[in-house]
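I am still learning, so would you mind making up any protein sequence you like and the tokens describing how it folds?
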Amino acid sequence: MAILKLKRADDVSTTLLAQLLRYTDGIGLDRAALLGAGGVSQRDLERPDGRIPVGAYNAVEEEAARLSCDPCFGLHVGQAAEPGGWSVLGYLMMNCQDLGQAFEKSARYARILGTVIQGRGSLSGSCVLMELHARPGAQTLSRHCYETVFSSTLRMMRTLTGQQVRPKEVRFPWPLPGAADEYERVFGCPVLFDQRGVSMLVPLDVFKLPILAPNGILLERFEEWARSYLDELDDANPTTRAVTTVILGRLDDPRLSLGSVARELGLGARTLQNRLDDEGVKFSQLLGSTKERLARKHLAEGKHVDEIAYMLGFSDPSALSKAFRRWTGTTPSQFRAASPSDAESA
């Protein structure tokens, strides 16, 4: 069975645009003129779960940068960011135990904010290398957008922990657009330009910093909302929906892979991955999130861990427990022991 390719337009959450406009309001720019540049209405901003085309956001941002005459515009927008400006993702991160868990959740649910910029983290000595990439085939974004992402990421780290977090180094691929000392003031570290990509090197110990006031019950509630929201986004993506259907039918198959799913759909593996890329999805993430949702469901229904491990294609219960701890920060038994009545009363 082949899939009809219906490419979904890239979009971003309206909360990102609202965050941008709060900053431009503060520096005295004309909101109506900015919205007009992107073909966006004030009514679009009043939908808390709304989405707008990424081109509309980009047009508003470019016009705001032009009118502000600020070469470091994106940098300063990010410095004014608050957790609520990251939609439910910000509130989810506020209730994690530490920055490591917060950014693991951020990576998992990043599509809530937008489908163009994709982040990747990897170990580099005693640091984590955080890199930003545009999704293949996506619309080109301005440098202000990338600078806002890293500036707001650092702002989030400092806000969530109450610590003056400092990266080791930040790199951008464009020429120095303004005063170097302003970039170094914001990031608190050397900032290099004309580099090969967009990256930030952060000491590994930073991710062990505790969040100021975590709440496990709220974390569960916000994460459930985040999962439901992504499910709704996926309903508009035909390839993701088709792959999910195959995964659900073959979870207990140890040979389940991108290649085997592609064969079942009558596609080549590269073609299938390209189509998933068009929808902002990775096969491994889709497989993991599907297993996580079902594991939670089966545990809530009282099924035994051994049975769930078999149903979800894990080699043994310990493999399921390890994956479940990675997904949720808790073990299956701890998850099952949580009292629904306590959660409701809290």
User: Anything to note?
Assistant: Residues 11-208 form a domain with the H-NOX domain fold (CATH 3.90.1520). The chain has two domains: 11-208, 237-345. The mean pLDDT is 86.
